[in-house]
Amino acid sequence: MKQFIIFTIFVLVVLSGCGGQETEPTEGGTGGDNAEVKLLKIAVATPEERSLTKGLYRFAEIVEESTNGIVKVEVYPNGVLGGDREVFEGLQLGSIEGTTISTGPVAQFAERFSVFDLPFLFPDEESAYEVLDGPIGTELLDDLHGQGVIGLNYWENGFRHLTNNIREVKTVDDIKGLKIRTVENNLHIDMWRELGANPTPMAFTELFAGLQQGVVDGQENPVGNVTTTNIYEVQGYLTKTNHIYNASVFMISQPFWNSLSEEEQEIIRNAADEARDYQRQLNQQENDEAFVFLEEAGMTITELSKEEANKLFERVQPIYEKYAPRIGENFVNELLEAIQK
Q1: How many CB atoms lie within 10 A of CB 111?
Q2: Less crowded by CB within 10 Å, the N or C end of the chain?
């Protein structure tokens, strides 16, 4: 009996020694038969209905299909893994493998990204695409390497607009005194101060509650965020200000990136580009539908006159004077010339 027990223990020890780390064998794929599955967790603040989140689901489909399941992608929307700052820090630590975040919050870690948040920089989406997908956009993505993050490309959050629940904003003077939630970015805060508002930085995940409880009177976001996060339920007025075009940086954690083979990295890059194009197109459709929906839901939608739009532009010029030296005046001038072309 004693010999049987000893033999049983010996067999268990041998079997446990053969186990190694837990893996999920997969046939085929970039790693061959029985390759270890690599889990790519992507966190985002936006809800499932938002074009950014849908783009991430599309990215997941492409990657899993192209790697035959060797790279498995899990998308965590609605800020369940934290707000923008927490998610970016998760990328740095390697506890989160991927995300897409607007340039404003990213600039808190890599300051030159503030250049894309200069007010009234891009006249339209196509001008933004030319710059973002070109040498200037690529150069800025390289700034993320020092933060332990790999920037792959730029998706689209969209042009930002002002909403509030106090009064219709038809002139620049109507903004004065409004408590406006802004992203956690000094440039955004300073811009709203120049316009006479009382800016309050707040995480996007806390925004609805802040509006509902009256902590802030209003906020500014792309119209897709106004609809998909139900902001319209606690806001009565929207003014089409188009004050900032918001690109959203698609990023991968450097520790995870380094764990991939060259073939897998190329698949990730190609999938990111395909998902970006899909998401941008989806976002344009989302914008058009959102304004119709909001008007039908009872919001007052206001178009600024050309005269008032020019006043808005003139009021924020001190932002260029303050931030161009910080970002790099030569770099800002290079960007402005590229947009003019």
Answers
A1: 16
A2: N
CA distance 268 to 263: 9
Beta bridge partner(s), residue 221: 161
Burial track 304-327 (b if 16+ CB lie within 10 A, e otherwise): beeebbeebeebbeebbeebbeeb
- Residue keyed to tokens 């061959």: 32
Token output for 94:
């390697």
pLDDT at 6 over 90: no
Q: Is residue 77 assigned to a domain? A: yes
Please give the tally of structural domains in the chain: 1
CATH code assigned at 236? 3.40.190.170
Domain carrying residue 318: 36-335
Q: What are phi and psi of 78, to 5 degrees?
A: 60, 20
* pLDDT one-digit tens code per residue, 67-120: 999 999 999 999 999 999 999 999 999 999 999 999 999 999 999 999 999 999
- Cβ proximity of 161 and 232 under 8 Å: no
pLDDT digits (tens, 9 = 90+) for 11-39: 333 333 333 323 344 444 455 556 789 99
Taking the complete model, does pTM exceed 0.85, yes or no?
yes
Pairing state between β 179-182 and 218-222: parallel
What is the three-class DSSP state of 110?
Answer: coil
Residue 286 CB neighbour total at 10 angstroms: 24
Q: What's the chain's average pLDDT?
A: 91
Alpha-carbon distance values, 53 to 63, 142, 259, 298 (Å): 15, 24, 25, 26
Q: Which residue has the tokens 């923008």?
A: 84
Which of these, 70, 80, 83, 82, lies nearest to 40 by C-alpha position?
Answer: 70
